[in-house]
Amino acid sequence: MTRPSLRTANLLAVWAAAWALAALALGVVGVLRPVPSWLIWPATVGGIGTAIAACRVASAVGEGPVRLLWRRFSIACSLLLAGVGTQIVSQVILGNALKPMSPITAALFAAAAGYAMLAVFRLPTARRTWRAALATFLDVAIVGVAAAVVLTHFLRRTPDFAAGSPMTTTLMVTVVVIASSTIVMVLKVSVTGTAAAVAPALWALAPAGLLGPAAWVLQPVLDHWPHLSGAVVTAPIAGLLFTLAAWVQTRTVTSEPRPTRRRISLVPYIAVGVALVMLITVTLHTGFLPPDLAGGSVALTVLVMIRQLAALLDNAVLLDRMEDQVHHDDLTGLPNRRLFTTTLAERTAPTTVAVCDLDGFAALNDQLGDDTGDALLRAAAVRVTAVTGGAVVVARLLGDEFGVLMPGIDAELAETLVDAFRTPLRVDDRDLLVTVTSGVATGAGKAVPDLLRRAELALQAAKYTGADRAREHSGALDATAQHHAELAAGLRRGLERGEFKLLYQPIVELPSGSVAGVEALIRWQPNDQPVISPAEFIPVAEHSGLIIDLGAWIIETACADAAAWQLRYGAAGPRVNINVSARQLLDPVLPGMVADALHRHGLTPDRITIEITETAVFAGGAALETVRELRELGVGVALDDFGTGHSSLTLLRTCPVTTLKVDKSFIDDLNGTAEQEAIASSLSTIASTLGLRAVAEGVETQDQADRLHALGYRYAQGFHFSRPIPAVDIDALLNTPVLTA
């Protein structure tokens, strides 16, 4: 429906322009040679008839108030057409030479303008606060008074109107009504803020209100030609403006909606400026200001002063609101980190600061959705506030981290917060059990401003030990934090200086001991310093985010070595296992990084196995999706330390695993009782049934290797076979069974 309507509107706009051009051409011809007095009226009728049809089209595509507005505009155009008809009858059929128009014509023109003005006035406006409504009322009053001042001066300068002629009075009323329609349109669009769907069309139509005053001004000039009058000159233009406005309306409704922006209305300022110019001109011309204009200027000045005062008050309220928003969280309404730290900086009395964050909130938010996540945060804010009481400052510090500032010393505050969240939260008519991990710090005097840092340090230390934990700050944590900061800086320098290297621990096939694969293990030896254990620097890399860059280097180096073995040994070359951390699995570029490395080195995907931990993918979400994308590349996926994490058997159904690496703790129990060997035996059976490869880790003796083979294991790894060695030493083992360390 919309496309045909737009094409119809386009066609009607062309017709309206053609009628207006025809009227102009006929008018010029009449100036050059004698013509009948009715010459232009047919083009006028055609233009206004076209406007009626265009308004009907705009009404058909609109809805609600828009449809009703254009239906009323079509009635206004019909009244305008009726006025033209009465003028034709009076001037052509009855031979009445009254100019510029008959009283009936003037009345119908005034009725058309008045009805159009009423249609615009009745358009609904958006709901406003009382302050905004007052500002709108003052803007309307300013424009109204300014318009009244200008119109009053215009009437006083009209000698015929001052003489009180009925005909002149009728015409002047028509002019005033038509001019007022423009004022109403401009006010409706610019000041009161009517619907965006009709605003462009009303701006296009607004000049129609100037046609009445223009006709009055032009009439003395047009008296020289019988075929010209103010009415016959301006009526075709009115039809053209209505048609163009209807075309704009149709185009607006049928096109893609554009975002609307609230702009400052310049109309009141323009109105004041016009009135001021006129007052100055009158004063300079006459040497004084007439009483009616003086009264209008006083009223205008008072209104402008009140409007500016209202604007100042609004600005003050807005500044207060902005100040509140700067220091409070929009979601929970709690103070934010800025207000929390400001309050803390002003204290010297004994103070306790505790911080806590929700365990696993990111995974919950992914599973339940942002709306439920927001509701969960609000419920958590209520719980923290209820637990701590009213004499404290509770703030939302970060996404799911809350802070508590309490007067006095209470080292148990962190434990209190942890205990409080062991009761489920009520979120959207359901109970959710969400635990927290918390840290606390206490102090007085100059130490108080630093309590937030110390509490967050205690929180991080608690997280290292697991979830649902509490930790109090101690001096040892500061030393550890300093060491970790120095270690993180050293990690960055080490990457840049090439201080890292990869060692490979063989994965052998039982019972022959031939090398089937290798696990890549990173080592760090800073220049002229002792080797730093991975157990020390890997957690720091995880926490600092450097694990992403470090992991990229490991993938690149391991793929290069695997490609070299594939080139030398073909299918007999060892598969390479690469460990990937939980932080790396949350990086969406990881699958692409692996794919690029495989392509760059010409390595087939089945020569690589990505090792992950159960904990890293236990919560599902983005980490599990990354694992699936890696598996789709064709690389293997090994579940490391299997049996020691969360819900291992469930993961075998949801995670695309190809290899199980049985944890050393189960291997240590071999050669004992049947009960001790039961788990190792069961895991081998599960792997075999599911078509997975089982690798026993931590094999340290030949007896363990023999027993593992008897239990069904075909692959093993441990110091009994080889310690981690450089890549160049792997070649020496590829053709020799590795049966002893």
Automatic annotation (TrEMBL):
List each copy of the GGDEF domain by range. Answer: 349-475
Q: Output the superkingdom of the source species.
A: Bacteria
Keywords from UniProt, A to Z, are: Membrane, Transmembrane, Transmembrane helix
An example of a Pfam family matching this protein is EAL
Domain EAL: from-to ranges: 484-738
Q: Which PROSITE patterns match?
A: EAL, GGDEF
Transmembrane ranges? Answer: 12-32, 38-61, 73-94, 100-121, 133-155, 167-187, 194-216, 228-248, 269-288
Protein name in the entry:
Diguanylate cyclase (GGDEF) domain-containing protein
